[in-house]
Amino acid sequence: MANARHVQRLYDRKASGYDAATASRRLDTLRAALLAHAAGDVLELGVGTGATFAHYPATLGSLTALDVSGEMLRRAQPRALRLPFPVRLVQHDFQTLPFPAASFDTVTSSLGLCGIPDPARLFAEVRRVLRPGGQLLALEHVRPPNAWLGLAADGLDPLFERFVGCHANRPTPHLLREAGFTVDLLERRLGGILVTLRATPA
Questions:
Q1: pLDDT, one tens digit for every residue, the chain (202 residues)
Q2: What region holds the Methyltransferase type domain (predicted)?
Q3: Exposed, middle or buried, 12 (CB in 10 Å: 0-12/13-18/19+)?
């Protein structure tokens, strides 16, 4: 991951106040509806402090929770201990997933794909680690469909990358289709800026 050290330092610093700064009933509602579709052995990319944990079905086989920030994972640990299925916390970047092929039934991400320097490389890795019939479930902010807002997002993108660690103008559904996934948009909010999606290898 080209900017892994920058993102790691950024989120290590933010970890102590991250939950308070990002708490959102709207996001929790979207996460709950999306993650209800998770099944089997699950890999979550960008788990952060574990804000998603409460939204997973109790019937999962296992959860592997990956994040580049050790401080975020330290805060996720107590939440992981309360889950009714096995949880493994892994500190690693997203560009090269440290798992054998066909390891997972579901890959999930909540506002994590927008910070990846090379989406095509990541999506190839997601395909590799998914089992036949597997799925990617993601909640993402994407480039606004409105033309003027899209241009504004383009202008703001360098600031987002530097201070937030993500991209304001990433067309994630389009990039997934280019990578050979079939993409279903499940929900669109905030004028199409915030989406939940299910992607399956075509």
A1: 346 665 666 565 664 555 555 657 888 899 999 999 999 999 999 998 999 999 999 999 999 999 988 888 999 999 999 999 999 999 998 888 999 999 999 999 998 888 788 899 999 999 999 999 999 999 998 887 766 776 766 677 676 767 666 667 788 999 999 999 999 999 988 788 889 999 999 8
A2: 43-137
A3: middle
- The correct CATH number of 4-201 out of 3.40.50.150, 3.40.50.300, 1.10.10.10, 3.40.190.10 is 3.40.50.150
- Say which residues have a Cβ less than 8 Å from residue 155's Cβ, sequence separation at least 6: none
Q: What is the pTM (predicted TM-score) of this model?
A: 0.86
Amino acid at 88: R
E strand intervals along 31-153: 41-45, 62-67, 87-91, 104-110, 130-141
> Tokens 């009933």 belong to which residue?
25
Would residue 43 be called left, alpha or beta, if left means φ above 0 and alpha means ψ between -120 and 50 degrees? Answer: beta
Would you state the torsion angle of the CA atoms of residues 91, 79, 86, 136, taken in this order, to the nearest 10 degrees? -60
